[in-house]
Write a structure and sequence with these properties.
3-stranded antiparallel sheet; D-Maltodextrin-Binding Protein, domain 2; 5-stranded mixed sheet; 12 strands; 44% helix; 15% strand; alpha/beta; 3 domains; single chain
């Protein structure tokens, strides 16, 4: 058989870089057939069919940041399926739309901040927290690097020295009036006998804040990782006060991001509420029992993989958020009293007399959280 016929009868393989091959039409057809067969196998495999038959729970998160790491890890490791539910997790674009969807019964759960739940309940919203994703408030306060260099402060400096820098900055970026990204500055400045009324804020929305700081539009911001950490990795900002590390006693052992549901829905669907709560709690527990597995799962998740975060940003953000992972998602009255004290002290709750009770059954319950 001459060389020309041989070339037509036998697939042609040309070696290319990185040990990959470029193949002729016959092989491309074989590969397409193989891919189709693989897709059919995966789609019709017993595990996939079983997962599709599970009841679906619709979980909204207020935003997409690493304060929700336990939720992401639970999804990545299929803890929801293992607990008997099929999860659908979607960022809602803010705490209010997240809560409104649950109140309006278009979603089963809202993962959002505890002080937002306090405010929602004061407004009459039927919501209750059934699981906590964090054991510390997770905001990272970043200041323009030129300012931290001027005052010669780092994360190793005494906490009060770092907080005093906040009294000397110009415009502070916040997401919206009254948001925790604003109130945290007022709360901390008051701790060092500063005057919160002298602070100046610009309300730019969460996505615009890192760029505003890096372009010298604002001097400081407070967001959960990785937003503030992006500014440090770029050399423009510096995370001066990472609250997730637990340095501020009033904001430590504090249920920050929590899973909310309508009380009536949770009572009527206790098995679904418990399965969802347990899945997220198992992810938080994994950080304490096998931190490398937790970190690998978080890095592989669609919201924090290499296509979303560069390695230096992920590593810095992870170091700020991981210590806030609780050993389990259960809550207590002491932690919720801290939420109320912060909400009152920061002005989120205007009238102390109208603040709800921190006792179980009002803002929160451990009825559905299960046990390790």
């Amino acid at each position: 058989m001459d060389e020309q016929i041989r070339g037509q009868a036998v697939r042609k393989v040309e070696k290319v870089s990185d040990f990959r091959c470029r193949v002729g039409p016959a092989n491309r057809m074989l590969r397409a057939a193989y891919a189709l067969a693989t897709t059919i196998f995966v789609t019709l495999s017993p595990g996939t069919i079983a997962a599709q038959q599970l009841p679906e729970v619709n979980i909204l998160s207020a935003v997409s940041n690493m304060a929700f790491s336990a939720v992401w890890v639970a999804e990545q490791l299929k803890y929801f399926e293992q607990e008997g539910v099929r999860d659908k997790i979607t960022p809602a674009g803010g705490g209010a739309p997240c809560q409104n969807a649950v109140v309006g019964r278009s979603a089963h759960f809202c993962a959002s901040s505890s002080e937002g739940l306090v405010l929602a309940q004061l407004e009459g919203a039927p919501l209750i927290a059934i699981q906590a994703h964090n054991s510390n408030l997770t905001l990272s306060i970043a200041v323009r690097k030129a300012i931290t260099d001027k005052f010669k402060v780092t994360r190793s400096s005494p906490l009060n020295d770092r907080i005093k820098v906040l009294t000397a900055v110009g415009t502070i970026g916040a997401t919206s009036p009254g948001a925790v990204s604003e109130q945290i500055f007022k709360f901390l400045v008051a701790k060092v006998k500063g005057d919160p009324s002298k602070l100046k804020f610009a309300y730019l929305g969460g996505t615009e804040l890192p760029a505003a700081l890096m372009n010298n539009v604002v001097d400081a911001i407070a967001l959960s990782p990785p937003s503030a950490e992006i500014t440090e990795a770029a050399g423009k900002g510096y995370v001066l006060i990472p609250l997730g590390l637990g340095e501020v006693a009033e904001l430590t052992n504090y249920p920050y991001e929590v899973l909310m549901a309508r009380p009536d829905w949770a009572d009527q669907n206790a098995a679904l509420a418990t399965a969802t709560s347990r899945a997220i709690s198992r992810a938080g527990e994994l950080y304490h029992s096998n931190p490398s597995a937790f970190k690998a799962a978080l890095r592989a998740h669609r919201f924090s993989d290499k296509s979303k975060l560069e390695d230096n940003v992920f590593e810095l953000a992870y170091s700020m958020i991981a210590p806030a992972m609780p050993t389990w998602g259960s809550m207590n009255q002491e932690g919720w009293q801290k939420v109320l004290d912060f909400s009152i002290g920061a002005g989120i709750v205007k009238d102390r007399a109208k603040a709800p009770s921190a006792k179980e059954g009002v803002l929160w319950t451990n009825k559905y959280v299960g046990k390790p």
